[in-house]
Amino acid sequence: MPPTGPGGLGARVRIGYGLGSFATGTFGTVPGLLLLSYLTDVLGVAAGLAGLLVFLPKAWDVLLNPWIGSLSDRTTRSRLGPRRSWMLLGALTMPLCFAAPGLDGGPAALYVAVLLLLTASAYACFHVPYVALPAELTADPDERARVMSWRVAFLAVAILLSGALAPPAGRGHRR
Predict the structure, then answer these.
(1) May I ask the CATH architecture of the domain 21-165?
(2) How far does CA 112 lie from the centroid of its chain?
(3) Helices 11-37 and 141-165: crossing angle, nearest 10°?
(4) For a designed S-S bond to 31, which of 2, 35, 118, 155 qualifies (C-beta 3.0 to 4.6 A apart)?
(5) How do the domains of the chain map onto residue ranges?
(6) CB environment 127-142: b (16+ within 10 A), e (fewer)
C-alpha cells in the first residue's frame, strides 16, 4: 500500500475517488424509479414479467459480485493495478448497455433482460473493485474513512440529482 504523508491523500484523490459514486448512485436510482413503469407503460410488457426483469439483475449480483471480487483480489495482474483495470472495463462497457429498444411486448422484454444483465455485469466490474480501492490507496484507517466519506457524499448527491432529473414515469408513453 502506498504510504500517505502528513496531509493524507489530498482533496484531488478524495474527489476523484468520490466521483465514481455518480455512476453507482445513478445506476442504483434511475432503474428503480423508472424501469418497471417503462417496461409496462411504454414497452407493453406484462407487469409480472416486468417485475421479474427488474429482479433478475439483483439475483445475478449475488452470484457475480463475489466472483468479480475474487478475480480482482487474487488473479488480476495489470500495469493499472488489480482494481483499476476492472473499474475501467465496467466504466467503458456500462454506458453501451443503456439503449432503448424499438420493440414491444415479449421481444422488448427479452431485449431488456439481456441488456439489463449485461449492464449489471458491467456495474459489478466497476463497483466491486471501486469499493475495495481505498484499502489500497492508504494504510491509514482514518484516511480511508475520509476517502469513504467523500464516496458517500458524492453518492448522496448522485441519488438526489438522478432522482430529480430522471424523466417522469410514462413520459413518451406510446400506448
Answers:
(1) Up-down Bundle (1.20)
(2) 17
(3) 40
(4) 35
(5) 21-165
(6) bbbbbbbbeebbeeee
DSSP reduced 3-state for 80 = coil
Torsion-angle region of residue 36: left (phi > 0), alpha (psi -120 to 50) or beta? Answer: alpha
* Residues 107 and 117 sit within 8 Å (Cβ to Cβ): no
Cell matching residue 16: 476523484
The DSSP code for 38 is: I
**pLDDT tens-place string over residues 73-102:** 887 677 767 788 888 889 899 888 877 777
Mean pLDDT of 142-161: 92
Q: Which residues pair with 5 in a beta bridge?
A: 8
What percentage of the chain has pLDDT greater than the value 90?
A: 32
User: pTM, whole model, 2 decimals?
Assistant: 0.80
